[in-house]
């Protein structure tokens, strides 16, 4: 019987396994996917949002705790646990050295990437390189890893973990356990249950695409909630991005995102605008657009730009639809031509002169039109025009398990002494809604490391480089 059982194979699970093993505990990690698909949604990531008080290697200037907190507060609308959020923020300033020791490399943001050189550290080779580095390190340290092993249930004695039960009926005992098996974004039935029908009689979730892994079915999350674990979060809230409507159903990843929204206008299938495309910097607001599109008829939108936008955003993997006139573009996209042309011409007429600068909140805005475009508003007047059809792309869901600063699972308001949770299964404690680039990896890294250390501690092992008293002080 192992000291620590880790269920999951993404960033949070690997951080937990590595920390527990470093502390001296024996560790078994169960990954539900085949080896070639290992890593969960972490394989599709590319950066980590990091607090820092001064320039650090790949990070420029400073990104202090209070600014990070205010950014998180803004996107969540206050639906966040401040104590746990600040733990995540402070932990993000201290984890990169440890990550490097386990083979993770960082690089400055590429030209045309998100404007986050000050706030986010980018992984060289992306998330796939990160999870591969962690798996190599885990194997070298003696972590036992099993693939194609889906856990469907947990045996408990009261609030104490006893064993995990796999889909094959195998019973696996351990002294402690860390749950890090992801959310339910790939479970089409659960998405339907959560979203229901809208006022038009549509099932919105039927038109959602899944940016990440197909293996996050939420089986273990559902089991834990049904078994009485304290849950937190709204099942309709998720990291949901507007992505190319031609993206695959699963595993499209980062390259399917459409990053030119703030450089033009977005219309629905009726040819009408429905939200301020220039509300804030794209890294802070890109994750609201999936939900906005989900609320439109048919769950589809269209991002429209002209030639002035070319070269100012990361081009998606699929080329857009191009036309020399607005009417031609409408016909190619299947939009009502007269309404679409009127929408764009009205927007053009509402644009006021200003100094365009997409790296700052500039003074290029509209006047006398609703919805307004508050920054980066320039007339679409330089053909050929380009349009991208958009669908909601779900990255991960926020419904999860309640935790405390020790990453403990709760049952009826009592923390379990030997059952912990990290990653997407508890991210809703910090992310009640909204998203800002790189914070998911920050949550997974912070609570994965905490869960691993606490699980090992529950077995009598102390991590040599993790100060438990400092962790408690940070939490308070």
From TrEMBL:
This is FAD dependent oxidoreductase putative periplasmic protein. Pfam families: FAD_binding_2. Transmembrane segments: none annotated. PROSITE patterns: RHODANESE_3 (PS50206). NCBIfam families: CobZ_N-term, PRK08274.1. InterPro entries: CobZ, FAD-dep_OxRdtase_2_FAD-bd, FAD-oxidoreductase_2, FAD/NAD-bd_sf, Rhodanese-like_dom, Succ_DH/fumarate_Rdtase_cat_sf. Its cofactor is FAD. Residues 4-46 form the Rhodanese domain. Gene3D superfamilies: FAD/NAD(P)-binding domain, Succinate dehydrogenase/fumarate reductase flavoprotein, catalytic domain. Its EC number is 1.-.-.-. Keywords: FAD, Flavoprotein, Oxidoreductase, Plasmid.
